[in-house]
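Collaborator request, handled under Task 6.
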Amino acid sequence: MKKILIGILVSIALAMPAFAADHDFSTMNPTVKVTSHKMLYTDQVVAYGSGSGSVITSDGIILTNHHVIFNDEEFKPLDAFEVCITFEDTEEPVCDYTAHLITHDKDLDVALLKMDPVDVFGNPVPPLKSIDWQTPASPKETDKVRVVGYPASGGDTVTSSEGQISGTETQNGYRYFKTDTDFDHGSSGGTVFDANGRFIGIPTYIRSYAENVGYFLDLNEARSWIQTNIAKTPQDNSKANALLIKDLARLSKANETLSYTQDQYPFLSLTLPKDWKFEEINNDSLYASQKNVSSPVELSVVSNPYQYRVDDGYLKRLDEELAKTKKSYPDYNKDNVTFAGQKAWKTSFTSSSQRNITYYIPFGYAIPSLSYSINLDEATDQEKAIQPLLDSIRFSQPAQNDPKLSPTLKFDTPPFSITAAEGWRIRKNPGKDSQDLLAEAVQDGNFDGSLTLYYSPIPKDERQLSDTDRLKAKTKTMGNNRLVFKNDQVVLGGLPGFLYTYEYEGEKYQEMKKHMILQVRDGDNEFAVEYNDLTEHFDANLPQLRQMLDSFAFNGKTTQDKALHEYGNLGLTFNDIQYHPYAQAIGDLADKGLVTGDKEGNFRPEAAMGRGEALKLILESRNYLENEKKSGKAVDFKSYSAKTKLTFKDLKPTNALAPYVHYALDKKMLQGFGDKTFRPNKAITLAETLKLILGTFEIPVWKGDTTPWTKKYMDKGFELDLIPYGMWNPDQALTRAEVAYLVSQIYKNADNQLMFDY
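Structure tokens returned to the collaborator:
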């Protein structure tokens, strides 16, 4: 394993020209800075946290804290480790080195790293100055101590702080010393020396509620553990390490030359003035600032690549987004300018004492943005400082209008693929923002919506919950959002899960949008597919959405058929109610579980509703209301199966509708036909429906006789505004949609006490 690992590092080094300047390792400080990186599924690494470490052998074994190298969210070690060495205590450390994890111990809160034998440019790392960890010492209260590390509050250089031991405390069965020495979380894993210069402990944690009280682990507690593990072979994570090496080399080279050209579209290049430095360089962004200045100017560049060429539609949408700023900042201004040889927009506005400037440069299929802020009190000096940098910015290659994306996107980890529907394009997340975002698909010409795909750990407190319980928790409180569909029996690529879709009001006047969230489990992780769009686009695009979900192919472990896809109707409560005049009413009842569809997800809104089905719907709607109000008046209809003697010869006791019919007979809410039949499948009429609704909800109706008998129910229906326009014939046979509308109307007004006489 070790030989293979070194071979990989050497091959990377050979592919990269040696570049870094020589350093005098005889002057190095053996207390180093350690930054732990997480590898994203989009083949990038991102800094997750940093601390300090002590080099304890000349070949680069580093002792640090477990919590410096561990990912608490995913409950596993991080993937790649950057090591920064200080050669001059007054200078920033050099971050041209990487390391691999040997092992770690959570209870002891220690970890061992092994530095790689070459730096990020392939130069061999010579023997290192190290700290003696084997000479025993017996620290005690009042002893003077010195803590060395890289505290977050200590600037960019190594920091040494002095204090004394003020007591001891036991944590996880191990002894810690309490000290008034000033250090913070960045010092974690660093070095504690006694007055004689002996290595006696590891700074580990501080108490936030107690000023200047920190704790360091007694090194005596860790010596046997170090001895046991120091010779073990480092763990192999060559892919993450290669990505980190690439990032570190790119940043280091750029800072030595003070120039950088992006190696991906839009291939922007720039040169820094001599008193600047690159703080960070990523595939799609960079960040630079002045050095050694109390109030530095900082420049942020983001590439913003799209799936299609930037046309007037993209620019219009960008302009709409920028216009929102104008509402908050009256001096907001947008000018058409030429920047980097291209037509661009320059926006500016004042916030507090700063003038904020951003250039937006449409360039093929990207809109790079460059942002910086000028302090108004130092405007002259800061504008003078940044102008040479702005003047240096160019595009090293011509604009490209087509990113030439493959319709099918494949990932090795997690192992899956998905294909964009016709008229859509999908691309891998190009940046490190939204770290769990794997990919985004957009539709040509649609600037309002997108399909996004995420992969992340399931929250620890949800891992033991069923999909039904998770769905209930997520849809329990929707606020002003209207739930239109939910399904806790989802399967995507053989993975089980749930989905829900809700409708909400957009930012524009009378703009309605829909948002679908589908989540399926992969062990302790989950895929989340989200589609957010204008309602009209959403509904029209359901066939394409279904096509893309059907294309999802999962290649990992699952207990079900990997080709299995089951997710119901996605965004419409039922497939066949799109644009139906009573779709809202049907959806409201479906949200409450009062109406269901067939196996194909259809409601059949224009089919006649039978007397039995209508009776059940009306009675269950009253029950739902009573349960919602916690009134205790809900009825157990099953208990009525045996309470009433069987009256109708066409209704067997085993019929699911029998309990509801028995209840209605008992309450004298209905009657059958002269031939002793109930005719449960006979289409119910408007008058019959109104009579059942008014009786079930105990709404007073005039007691006198009318001719015809239906008149008093029709009158009440019109009085309460239950009956929609055009529905006037009491003998009219009602459709399923029409009955749903009447029930929905009565339910909506259920809190109007003037209507009810309980």
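The cover message to the collaborator said: "The first strand starts at residue 29 and ends at 40. The chain has a mean pLDDT of 87. Please let us know whether this matches your experimental observations."
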